Predict the structure of Glycosyltransferase subfamily 4-like N-terminal domain-containing protein.
Amino acid sequence: MAEEAGRRRRAAVVVLGDIGRSPRMQYHSLSLANQAGMEVDIVANGGSDPHLSLRENPSIHIHEMKSVQLSGISKISGALALLLKAAIQFIMLIWFLCFKIPRPDVFIVQNPPSVPTLAAVKLVSWLRGAKFIVDWHNFGYTLLGLSHGRSHVIVKVYFWFEKHFGRMADGAFCVTKAMQHELAQNWGIKATVLYDHSPEFFRPASLTEKHELFCRLGGSICGAMGSADCISVEKEVEDKNTTVLTGKIDGGVSLKPNRPALVVSSTSWTPDEDFSILLEAALMYDRRVAATLGEEDSMDEGQLWIDIKNGKQFDYPRLLFVITGITHSAIFC
């Protein structure tokens, strides 16, 4: 009993996905380790590296699972592949959570995915005498419904699974008040809204970092988008001392006074996200500025960006949109 009383509290953070692409769960891990003084075991799929602050923190231990790929079976039967994949992931989770990590006081699991994560973590939390907490990022059944339709039997089963095991949690977080209301009214789940806050390592990029980034983007974007992209001017001018937005003179970096306004946004490119609002706003801006300046649609956009690069001033800033997503990336000028 004395050894148990002196044991440092421990938390297990479970992500059935790439922890490097799960910033919220990384922030949870850092908060648990630095602010709550807990030992933290992260159980997640491999992929991109998490932030250096996690990898160097002596209180955070990362346990990587292998991603399950069943592409061959998927071509034969999609439903069979989903069931088999869920079964394999369930066994992997049980193995890691029961035998690969020390007994934690609490499991914190990211949802979605709900299948088989919620059932596996609930079972292990019962076996190991730990609390079971769900962090609701979204609803898994709605994401599945985008590809199968809300009325599909798989989506209905997924909904029942997610709701049933979600209600068995000892506690819950969620990302918005709207989700909190939905969980309370229609799921019977009392969740605490936990907004994301930037960690200590999150800061504005320096001018040098911005310049280096824009230099790298000049080549990588053009390679992906082709020579027709507006930034292809970077290929024509092999000068690493200048980009569309920055210039480097005598070792010092500065932002160009005639640089375009840079707008960066991420999107999942799903039907439930009306991203056309931003694109329509960009078109409205373009038309109003063109009408004010008496410009025509036939003007050479390539020459326009060369003029910007060479220092030509404009009464209204040009807009450079960088839009990223899971399956697409695009540049709009």
